[in-house]
Amino acid sequence: MQFAEEKTNVTHQTIISPTNFCTRCVAVPTMKRQTGRKRAPAMSGALPKLMGTVLPRKTLPMRGAVLCESVGARLCTEDELDKNCAAGSGCGFDNALVWSSDPFTATGHFVACGKIGKCSEDEEVVPDGSSHEVRCCSNDEKPNYQQKNSQLNTVVPICPYSASKIGSNDICHSSKTYDEALEICVSDGARLCTANELLAGCSRGTGCGHDLDLIWSSDASDPTISSS
After folding, report:
1. Closest CA to 190 of 144, 223, 148, 222
2. Which of 26-40, 87-101, 140-154, 162-176 is predicted least confidently?
3. CA distance 161 to 147
4. How far apart are CA 27 and CA 194, in angstroms?
5. How far is 126 from 110, CA to CA, in rounded Å?
6. Where along the chain do its domains lie?
7. What pLDDT band is residue 52 in, cutting at 50, 70 and 90?
8. Read out DSSP for the chain?
9. 140 CB-near residues (< 8 Å, 6+ apart)
């Protein structure tokens, strides 16, 4: 299953291992919720409670699907989430990753050096379960995030804001899986940097000694191969 973020600052991304994310459902035509109130087919709603039981904010993919089906609904598709069909339906999930019904499509993501030419390891697509460092990007200005000048202007004309010390406690994050890295950034209201943003040096010099490390990107393919 894939998940999507309904805020434009955090793009949808694909994961391949069981991970906890939030659940929103879309109503099936003519069906009713537990309250008996009819819901239009095009409407969706977050479900914080079911049959008197408080549900966890985050669920595994199959749990999310079962939750929706149990009230006569289904998980939203990736396309529906991308179009903000579930936005504003409550539970504070507009700033959280939400499960979609779409299947897994990727097995790994590209990692790039924190600073151009400073890493001893190869920049390449690696399995999502491997361990690498975390830097986050944001399209909007945020506290402790810096905006660098792009070193690859033809591909990335303007760098986003980037940070290595993330969250209210300014913590460095090392040796994280892709899923862990993604959740760290999303929890901070940001996103993983794209491969091209990292290759353009947009996150260089933001701290934690990660200029010498490979950093997780949001790309499932190697842009240096795709563009050749």
Report:
1. 144
2. 26-40
3. 4
4. 34
5. 6
6. 2-99, 108-226
7. very low
8. -EEE-SSTTS--EE--S---BB-EEEEPTT-B-TT--B--TT-EEE-SEETTEEPPSSB-HHHHHHHHHHTTEEEPPHHHHHTTTTTT-STTGGGS-EE-SPPP--SEEEEEESSTT--SSPPEEEETTS-BB--EEESS--TT-EEPPPS-TTT-SS--EEESSBTTTTB---SB-HHHHHHHHHHTT-EEPPHHHHHTTTTTTSSTTGGGSEEE-S-SS-HHHHT-
9. 9, 161
The whole-model pTM stands at 0.58
Q: List the Cα angle 117/118/119 in 5-degree steps.
A: 100
Q: Which residues pair with 110 in a beta bridge?
A: 125
Contacting residues for 89 by C-beta, under 8 A, at least 6 apart = 24, 43, 44, 45, 46
Residue 37: both structure tokens together: 């109130």
What's phi and psi for 82, nearest 5 deg?
-60, -30
In angstroms, the CA 157 to CA 145 distance is 18
130 pLDDT above the threshold of 50: yes
CB 17 within 8 A of CB 199: no
Question: What are the tokens at 92?
Answer: 């504070």
| Structural tokens at position 190 | 């940001």
